[in-house]
Amino acid sequence: MLQEQEALAAPMERTFIAIKPDGVQRGVMSEIITRFERKGFKLVGIKIMIPSKDFAGKHYHDLKERPFYKGLCNFLSSGPVIAMVWEGEGVIRYGRKLIGATDPQKSEPGTIRGDLAVSVGRNIIHGSDGPETAKDEIALWFKPEELVTYTSNAEKWIYEN
Ligand code: UDP
Ligand code: MG
């Protein structure tokens, strides 16, 4: 019983997923959303925005020293991005699996990048790489009140309890 209460009280894991400008322009946003949705993950936040270069720099701050950093930030702010928060058991790690390896040449077929992208600088999607980054990225892109807490009718068919 106590365990049950704790499980109910424990907030479900959340991750930050973004469809980058290339994914939006190529018309694959619904395909990407569908893959997360069909897996059984729950969408709790979504918006479209054009991030400024400064904002893109904050998002990719850990890559500041890399030679591709400036081009990457310019690219992220070159058009609309779909910013999302997805929720579910293991969503951070499994979201990365759905996305595939950073370089689409190395992403497995069946993954988003493996199926839909060709080059590393145009790999259409971002996903948080761990619990700390997920927390930071969600806080950077969303205000708490932009995230929705709700029970999906499908949950009892997705989780054992
Ligand atoms: N990137 C790039 N050239 C590289 C490595 C990465 O343009 O040699 C870009 C690529 O778009 C990638 C992003 O920088 O998605 C962030 O890099 P990271 O290593 O965090 O990969 P990710 O977490 O997106 O798989
Ligand atoms: Mg990364």
Set out the fold topology.
Layout: H1 2-9, E1 14-19, H2 21-25, H3 29-39, E2 42-49, H4 53-59, H5 69-76, E3 81-87, H6 91-99, H7 112-116, E4 125-127, H8 131-141, H9 155-158
Antiparallel strand pairs: 1-3, 1-4, 2-3
The chain binds uridine-5'-diphosphate and magnesium ion.
Residues 63, 68, 72, 102, 120-121, 123, 126, 129 line the site of uridine-5'-diphosphate.
Briefly summarize what is shown.
The protein has 161 residues and is an alpha+beta fold. The chain has helices at 2-9, 21-25, 29-39, 53-59, 69-76, 91-99, 112-116, 131-141, 155-158; strands at residues 14-19, 42-49, 81-87, 125-127.
Report the sheet-strand fraction: 5-15%
- Structural category is alpha+beta
Query: Termini separation (Å)?
Result: 12 Å
Query: What is the CA-atom radius of gyration, in angstroms?
Result: 16 Å
What are the segments in which pLDDT stays under 50 over at least 5 consecutive residues? none
Q: Which whole number gives the mean pLDDT? A: 95
Order of neighbouring strands in the sheet with most strands = 2-3-1-4
* Each distinct ligand: uridine-5'-diphosphate, magnesium ion
Q: Sheet with the most strands?
A: 4 strands, antiparallel
The strand count comes to 4
Estimate the global geometry from the Cα principal axes.
globular
Q: Fraction of residues in helices?
A: 40-55%
Order of helices and strands: HEHHEHHEHHEHH
SS element count, helices:
9
Features:
42% helix, EC 2.7.4.6, binds magnesium ion, ATP binding, single chain, 9 helices, 161 residues, binds uridine-5'-diphosphate
Question: What does it look like?
Answer:
The protein is of the alpha+beta class and 161 residues long. The protein has 9 helices and 4 strands; from the N terminus they run αβααβααβααβαα. It has a 4-stranded antiparallel beta sheet with strand order 2-3-1-4. The longest helix has 11 residues, at 29-39. The radius of gyration is 16 Å and the shape is globular. It starts with a helix and ends with a helix. The structure holds uridine-5'-diphosphate (UDP) and magnesium ion.
